[in-house]
Amino acid sequence: MNNLLTIAMPKGRIFTEAAELLRKAGFPLPPEFDDSRKLIIDVPEAQFRFILAKPMDVATYVEHGVADLGIAGKDVMLEEERDVYELLDLKISACYLAVAGLPNTKMNEVAPKVATKYPHVAAAYFRQQGEQVEIIKLNGSIELAPLIGLADRIVDIVSTGRTLVENGLVEYEVIEHITSRLIVNRVSYRVKDERITEIVEKLSEVIKQKGELA
Ligand SMILES: Nc1ncnc2c1ncn2[C@@H]1O[C@H](COP(=O)(O)OP(=O)(O)OP(=O)(O)O)[C@@H](O)[C@H]1O
Ligand SMILES: O=P(O)(O)OC[C@H]1O[C@H](OP(=O)(O)OP(=O)(O)O)[C@H](O)[C@@H]1O
């Protein structure tokens, strides 16, 4: 039986913390893992394959079954609503999604605009608040939007808060606290349950130990 497990890893800021966690849980990650432009890294002796994906795409690979497991921010899960199971809160890459804007301003009463990289999350949030807004999708530098008059508010990730402060913006509401999650393809979870359960147990132990030390 094919016992290979494919794991989709997010490139970028989650990567280092995720790799550290996997190593502590006993994953045999080769040194090239940390400093390579390769997008597929095989560890045949342990029957693992790692694919390196854009963070926002990890759940897509897992949903389609080309990756069995993946590591994705909760923000990605909320935005993408992919049909996958969330197995574990890895408690890494903590940040939160917030509504922000220029200080002491109200949203425009007629057709208020909200700029964001998270159009579904933002639309759902303002719908829930009973506010009709126009969502403007941006791909980065979201904080620019209120500064330059493109939007009344933004919905974006806040981590240290430095980007907001340095651009003279303030937070109005926290929408959701975010950490990275271990996710699994629905079929893989059934077919490869033994290996996956073992991984979840090892990772849970490391997360627990980290929590006790903190
Ligand atoms: N300060 C932060 N800003 C953005 N994402 C953060 C932050 N801190 C933790 N994260 C987590 O990291 C993930 C995004 O990682 P990263 O910024 O590397 O990817 P990206 O948004 O695709 O970046 P880029 O488009 O700039 O390459 C988010 O899904 C979120 O869960
Ligand atoms: O609270 P802070 O620690 O300042 O972090 C928050 C900032 O980091 C992210 O941007 P990123 O660096 O990914 O750049 P981009 O989305 O503008 O490309 C996020 O979109 C915020 O702008």
From TrEMBL:
Lineage, top-rank taxon, reads Bacteria
Q: Which Gene3D superfamilies match?
A: Periplasmic binding protein-like II (3.40.190.10)
The main enzyme category here is: transferase
Q: Where is the ATP phosphoribosyltransferase catalytic domain?
A: 54-204
MF term (GO), any: ATP phosphoribosyltransferase activity
Q: Which InterPro entries match?
A: ATP_PRibTrfase_cat, ATP_PRibTrfase_CS, ATP_PRibTrfase_HisG, ATP_PRibTrfase_HisG_short
Q: Quickly give the catalysed reaction.
A: 1-(5-phospho-beta-D-ribosyl)-ATP + diphosphate = 5-phospho-alpha-D-ribose 1-diphosphate + ATP
Enzyme Commission code: 2.4.2.17
Family recorded in the similarity comment: Belongs to the ATP phosphoribosyltransferase family. Short subfamily.
Q: Tell me, what does this protein do in biology?
A: Catalyzes the condensation of ATP and 5-phosphoribose 1-diphosphate to form N'-(5'-phosphoribosyl)-ATP (PR-ATP). Has a crucial role in the pathway because the rate of histidine biosynthesis seems to be controlled primarily by regulation of HisG enzymatic activity.
Query: In the UniProt entry, what is the domain comment?
Result: Lacks the C-terminal regulatory region which is replaced by HisZ.
Q: How does it assemble?
A: Heteromultimer composed of HisG and HisZ subunits.
Q: What is the name of the protein in this document?
A: ATP phosphoribosyltransferase
Which source organism? Answer: Cytobacillus gottheilii
Q: Which gene encodes it?
A: hisG
